[in-house]
Amino acid sequence: MQTLSKNLHMVPRKRFDHIVIDEVHKAGADSYRAIIDYFTPGFSLGLTATPERTDGFNIYDLFDYNVSYEIRLGEALKQKMLVPLHYYGIADTGRVEDVVDTLHTYGRVDDVHGLIFTSSVEEFHALAEEPTRRGIRAVALAGADAPACREAVVGQLEQGEIDYIITVDIFNEGIGHPLCQPNRAHA
């Protein structure tokens, strides 16, 4: 979106008959607005899992309040369209110990794979090595890591060489990996 929004002059305004905007909840950003306002397609489709915004931006207005399909999280989980999410919030100073203890308590010894999301780079560094030190097969992966490194770590997860990826600043939005698909997931 960033590149296109800066180079709109290179693409004719009427170039596309249809435009599909994934993650349309970001459409309030200047880069998205520039693209949406520039093109004049016959049909536009916006996709998002989070239409309600706290920043005051009205996604519905972009599409004249025309919602072609809506399914809420509970119903999508019930229909097995999504992999169930197990979220464990930890709010005290013993976060690292609590995370590792949670893995031991709720983890299984069979073929389970998971993503552990951290809320900050500081927390990421604090947690990165502790699971491995405690016998849990995990690798830390950050947004700053090169794409080749990310692919290698995901490959380790796929091959069963590790069980968890500890992450910060990646996989935050929809992840289309086969291990995370409800009909293909091992977890």
UniProtKB/TrEMBL annotation:
| Pfam families in UniProt | ResIII
Q: Which UniProt keywords apply?
A: ATP-binding, Helicase, Hydrolase, Nucleotide-binding
Q: Which residues form the Helicase ATP-binding domain?
A: 1-69
Checking InterPro entries in the record gives: Helicase/UvrB_N, Helicase_ATP-bd, Helicase_Restrict-Modif_Enz, P-loop_NTPase
What GO molecular function annotations does the UniProt record carry, in alphabetical order?
ATP binding; DNA binding; helicase activity; hydrolase activity
- What GO cellular component is one of the record's annotations? cytosol
Q: What is this protein called?
A: DEAD/DEAH box helicase family protein
- Tell me what organism the protein belongs to: Corynebacterium glucuronolyticum
